[in-house]
Automatic annotation (TrEMBL):
It catalyses: a uridine in RNA = a pseudouridine in RNA. This is Pseudouridine synthase. It comes from the Bacteria. Its EC number is 5.4.99.-. Belongs to the pseudouridine synthase RluA family. NCBIfam families: rluA_subfam. The lineage of its organism: Bacteria, Bacillati, Bacillota, Bacilli, Lactobacillales.
């Protein structure tokens, strides 16, 4: 496995070790393999970790097939996968997940979004984050096991920004608010999550009202954390359950009215700013009906 990356011209001079550790966020295990096997090249010359790199240099990293665990994935519908891709480069792909489709299967034989995108890319893709089965919108996949832990770290460090839209019941008295309430499992139903006073996971959601209707409100939600059902639980806890949310007693709608509208990040190696917008026809159709009722 070989990856060749041209460093952006704006990159300051630094050592190979600094490049891999600080700039690229390469995990310790992978750095160890690259160092001991001398598998880093600068402009096609074998490099030491103490060597300096500069903007414009061409960096090549090499991995043996045994350096990463073997993974198998059944390919899905190539045409469907191609129709969902919003952005793709050598290392990552961002796609527009339809509502009522799993991000990934529970077993090797179950076909889900991941399988369709793998077919479209002609290779295995790796899940960086997921959306609930009922939720539509932008989802990020890694295209190789080298970049996967880097994207995982970026997500943990909040360098990947996800913006959602939700249509909720009722009127908000504030235009902006932050919900900082821990979330835990409902002891009466393990499939549900609830706001808890103790023992839950920290969960923070930033809410911005976009539009008010007669009985409902369209809001924008930005996640500071990424807990299961976070937006759904937080909005429901305020008495503003998302329309179509049968789990959290939302008002009736033809679908769950939660959509991952935007996804933003810097490309891990080139530092190119990436921002995609995912559009859902079914979400927009419900919005038009609400606006005219």
């Amino acid at each position: 496995m070989k990856f060749t990356i041209k460093l952006p011209t704006t990159l300051k001079k630094m050592t190979v070790a600094e490049l891999l550790t600080t700039e690229w966020l390469v995990p310790k295990k992978q750095r160890h393999l690259l160092r001991t096997k001398q598998h880093v090249l600068i402009n096609d010359d074998v490099a030491k970790f103490s060597d300096l790199v500069s903007g414009g240099d061409q960096i090549t990293v090499l991995f043996d097939t045994t350096d990463f665990p073997d993974k198998k994935l059944v390919f899905g519908d190539k045409q469907l996968g191609e129709s969902l891709i919003l952005y793709e480069d050598d290392h990552l792909v961002i796609v527009n997940k339809p509502e009522y489709m799993k991000t990934h299967g529970n077993g090797t034989s179950e076909i889900a979004l991941q399988n369709h995108i793998a077919a479209a890319c002609g290779q295995i893709v790796y899940v960086v984050h997921r959306l609930d089965f009922e939720t539509s919108g932008a989802v990020l996949f890694a295209k190789n096991p080298f970049v996967l832990p880097i994207l995982d770290q970026m997500l943990h460090d909040r360098q990947i920004h996800r913006t959602y839209q939700a249509l909720c019941a009722g009127q908000f008295t504030q235009d902006k608010l932050t919900i900082n309430q821990a979330i835990g499992t409902d002891r009466h139903d393990k499939k549900r999550r609830v706001v808890v006073a103790r023992g839950g996971q920290r969960a923070v959601t930033h809410i911005h009202v976009l539009k008010r209707f007669a009985g409902d409100t369209l809001v924008q939600c930005q996640l500071e954390t990424g807990r299961t059902h976070q937006i759904r639980v937080h909005l429901s806890s305020l008495g503003h359950a998302i329309l179509g949310d049968t789990v959290y007693r939302g008002h009736k709608a033809s679908r769950l009215m939660l959509h991952a509208k935007h996804l933003e990040l810097s490309q891990p190696f080139t530092k190119e700013k990436i921002r995609v917008t995912a559009v859902s026809e079914s979400f927009e159709r419900v919005m038009r009906k609400i606006a005219t009722d």
